[in-house]
Amino acid sequence: MKNERSLEIGTGLFVLLGFAALAFLTTQLPGSRLSVLGDQSGYGVTARFENVGDLQPGAPVSMAGVKIGRVTGVSFDSTDYKAVVTLSIDNQYNRTPDDSWAGVETAGLLGAKYVGLDAGGSETYLAAGSQIENTQSAMVLEKLINRLFSAFASKDDSEEKGK
Question: Nearest to residue 51, comparing CAs of 149, 141, 163?
């Protein structure tokens, strides 16, 4: 009887621990607005892009392969028809030159989108409320494939006309 009771308690604790681990991992997903570890304070900057692909809030912001912040918002500006991306840069990276480039990049060939920053050479730095002026929009795989096929098609057409 005592062994049965300790087995039930052990099983219950194991299940409870599993649910706690699942809840913790859920809060650590890139799109999650919850954070058990605490949100690192940072300063907000914006960047405008022609196309952001499938960039989502919570996506990382990196420079030289190191995560320095995260995307806090993606919205559409109907006056100039551009996507406005709000970034939160961690305070420890407060010496990011204000002429830096921001680009929407893909992790791998078909991976998740993130914002990559390339440092400029300015002596002045981004501050809270700044806007990154130099941007490079997301490369859309479908558009690249269409351009490739149309280039091959036009090459084939010109070769046939030359015969």
Answer: 141
* Number of other residues whose CB lies within 10 A of the CB of residue 130: 18
Q: Where are the domains of the chain?
A: 1-38, 42-145
> Phi, psi at residue 27, to the nearest 5°?
-70, -15
In the three-class reduction of DSSP (H, G, I as helix; E, B as strand; rest coil), residue 147 is classed as helix
Amino acid residing at 79: T
| Number of other CB atoms surrounding residue 75 within 10 Å | 12
Nearest to 106 by CA among 59, 71, 69, 151: 59
**Residues 61-80 pLDDT 10s:** 999 999 999 999 999 999 99
State the Cα–Cα distance between residues 78 and 43, nearest whole angstrom.
25
Q: Which of 61, 75, 47, 31 is nearest to 137 (CA)?
A: 47
Predicted local distance difference test score (pLDDT) of residue 78: 94
Residues 16-46: b if buried by 16+ CB within 10 A, e if exposed: eeeeeeeeeeeeeeeeeeeeeeeeeebbbbb
How is the beta sheet containing 60-63 ordered, strand by strand? Answer: 131-132, 42-49, 82-90, 66-77, 60-63, 113-118, 101-106, 134-136
